[in-house]
Amino acid sequence: MAKKDPYAALRIKEFNIFLLVRFVLVFGWSMQFIVIEWQVYSITKDPLSLGIIGLMEIIPAFTMALFAGHIVDQKEKRNLLATCIAAFSLISLGLFLLTWDEVVGDWTTKAILYSIYGLVFFGGFLRSFFGPTIFSLVALIVPKKIYPNAATWNSSTWQMAGVLGPAFGGLSIGWIGVHWSLCIIFGLVLLSLIILLQIKKKPVLNPKIGEPVIQSLKEGVRFVFKTKAILGAMTLDMVAVLFGGAIALLPVFAQDILKVGSEGFGVLRAAPAVGAFITMLITAYIPISKNAGMKLLAAIFGFGVCIIVFGLSSIFWVSLLALFFSGMTDGVSMVIRQTILQIKTPDNMRGRVSSVNSMFVGSSNELGAFESGITAKYMGTVTAVVFGGTMTLITVITTGLVSPSFRKLDLTKDIEAHEKAD
Questions:
Q1: Helices 261-285 + 316-344 axis angle, to 10
Q2: Mostly located where (predicted)?
């Protein structure tokens, strides 16, 4: 296998199956998220309700994260992921039923809304297991020397699904309505489960099976906080995502500011993923491990600028371009972060480290949605987005000034060491 082969990871059969599973699952999940966002805002006409969706997901995802990481490190990964997908299919089925007039025809709007929030809450519980399980499984499929290449294709697949899922979701709302859109999502989740079973079970590499939970969790947290590259990447991205995410308010922009309807909403929602996907394809050919720290800082700074432009724009094509370029900068950031995590994390701690990452980064998406809903309600939608972008810029500048070691972070030697080890 060539050292600089941009398709190195794709030459592994099980990795291709894994990518297909992830594509179908993320396509369905991202499609479901915007369909529910649209439905909830249509019911309430209150931007705070969009923030509550994020809050309902973050509470269980955050509180369960460390425990989920411990479980992932103790269990076989393929079957654990299958269990999570099966449980997620029940959520999709529940949302489908909640939009069926024959089932909820006599329900009040409040009852339907609270039931949706309840299913989102259950989804947050599952999410705490999804991230660590997927992160651990991919490391068991590909050899260490091609982790950066695998991270690029893995992130690219996630972004491609993030492009097509929201776009199709927005279009399907207009074509067949919310109810039947959710039926399609239920079918996609079941399909991902069937495909996953084509991957063989993997060995459990943790030598401390049966280790007490508290001791296991302490070890995972201690490792993250003493590994400056991992901690720096997590912290920087957490704050940037927390304050710089405008995605949660897109239904407001689409319906009330840009006035582009559900089709325009789908296009706007997909634009960041399109930009990120293009960037990730480029990084498969042009590695970005050299001077990774400065590149990560520059990428997140560019992301903040794009968010500010989007918030100030009242012209559809300007807003679309701003979101597209925000995705391109986020694509660089994502590949660097995933490479840092894969390279710096030992096999027996992948579940716990990924769980800490989900507490820092993954949960900040939902907390950011809640923050956006609150600030939009009390500051106005445009002001809220501009404020978030400005906070992102301040975070990047502060990090660059106070952490010279992070500015100098270079992953080239780590990658070369893994290549020699393999």
A1: 40
A2: membrane
Q: Which amino acid is at 70?
A: H
Which amino acid appears at position 248 of this protein? A
What DSSP element (H or E) covers 416?
helix 412-421
At 387-410, the pLDDT tens digits run: 888 888 988 888 888 888 788 888
- Per residue in 221-248, pLDDT (tens digit) is 888 888 878 887 887 777 777 776 667 7
Confidence of residue 365 (pLDDT cuts 50, 70, 90): low
Residue 171 Cα distances to 8, 18, 115, 176, 275, angstroms: 35, 27, 25, 9, 20
Q: How many whole angstroms separate alpha carbon 236 and alpha carbon 243?
A: 11
Beta-carbon count within 10 A of 45 CB: 12
What DSSP assignment string belongs to 157-175? Answer: HHHHHHHHHHHHHHHHHHH
**pTM (two decimals):** 0.75
Looking at residue 417, its pLDDT comes to 65
On whether the CB atoms of residues 152 and 283 are closer than 8 A, the answer is yes
Question: Can you tell me which residue has the tokens 């978030």?
Answer: 388
3-state helix, strand, coil in the chain (%, to 5): 85, 0, 15
